[in-house]
Structure formats: C-alpha cells, structure tokens
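Why run this: before we spend reagent on co-expression, it is cheaper to look at a predicted model of the complex and decide which construct boundaries make sense. The entries below are exactly what would go into the expression plan.
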Amino acid sequence: SAVISQKPSRDICQRGTSLTIQCQVDSQVTMMFWYRQQPGQSLTLIATANQGSEATYESGFVIDKFPISRPNLTFSTLTVSNMSPEDSSIYLCSVEVAGAGSGELFFGEGSRLTVL
Amino acid sequence: QKEVEQDPGPLSVPEGAIVSLNCTYSNSAFQYFMWYRQYSRKGPELLMYTYSSGNKEDGRFTAQVDKSSKYISLFIRDSQPSDSATYLCAMSEAAGNKLTFGGGTRVLVKP
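The model came back. Tokens follow.
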C-alpha cells in the first residue's frame, strides 16, 4: 500500500476564488488520479495526473477549470479555479503503487471543499 | 442507465448477521473488481480486490465475481457495529485504468 497525504483536509472558500490541493505519497507511484465526490454521491474521475506531461481529463472536466501538476512520482496538485457553490465536494487523490501492476488503487483522506 | 448499479440502501442489520452487498454492471470489458469501505468524512479504504471471475476470502469478508452475469457481491460475516459505513464497488478494464464506481451502499450494523 501507500501513505497518501492531502492538504488542505478542508477549506471554506469564496465564490470566484481558486484553491490548490496537494497530494503527497510516501513512495514512488506510476499512476495518480484525482476524483471528485459530490455530497451524497459516488466518486467521479476528474483526470489522470501524468508525470512530466499534461494531465488526461475525463469528459466534462477541462484543464482551465481543474489544472493539474505532477512534477515527480510522489507529488501532484489539483487546482479548482474560479469556484462556484457547485464545486463544493470532496476531492480525492488516488494512486496505484509503482510496480504493482495490479490495478489496486489507494485513496487519500480527501479534501472537503465548501464554496460560499 | 449507469455503467455500474448499486443499491444505495441503507441496509440495516443486527450485530452478528451476514451483510450481503452487490453490484451489477454493463461493461463486459471490466476485469478488475474492488470493494471499498468509506467511513463518514474519510477517504475510501480498499477492502477486497479480485481479478476476473471467482471468489476471494479475507477474514470475515468474501468477494464473488460472476462475469457471465455481470454481477459482483461482497459478504461480511459476523458483522460488527464498526462495519457501519458506506461500501462502494469499483471496477476497471485493465490495471492502472480508471475506476468506475457504483453509487455506494450505506450499511448500519446495530448492536
């Protein structure tokens, strides 16, 4: 497994502002993903964070709204830009441990975002 | 129709009972199947992981996959109040691919 730390764990933000969420893993990982979990809903994949290249976004999510960085194999950030109340969600970082090749994904504790 | 269907519950059982959870799916390309447990205000925790069809047992937990019926199950024996959580099924087509989640089933085990 892997220990995944996310910051901040929660925040309350004003409409129109942006917030960057950090994900730090205690070991090198090949695959890193960002998910969103809206209130009372299941998890939806936002994008795959690719090391050294642009993230791969799922349908309905765009880079201008959710820019992602992945400078190395242990760290990634997700920015939620120009926030609106509809962006109030839990944002989760997920990783597949390097070399596992098993498809097992582990999640961080999540960052709970409330937009007023 | 959602790609993965899961009854949202809540499912309420007395302590010691068997909890039976299931998901159905429509994508026949799914090969990897997972069950996650999520406590309130926490991230999902991987409980069980299976590849292709068959059964897998780990302590009180048993996962079953029937690819011919596109149906997966999770059984929790001797349920405890600490098992009260939301259980999410998830699946993917290949290792390292994105996971598609079910909506989650909320389980309440009453002492």
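The radius of gyration of chain A is 13 Å. The first strand of chain A starts at residue 4 and ends at 7. Bring this page to Monday's planning discussion.
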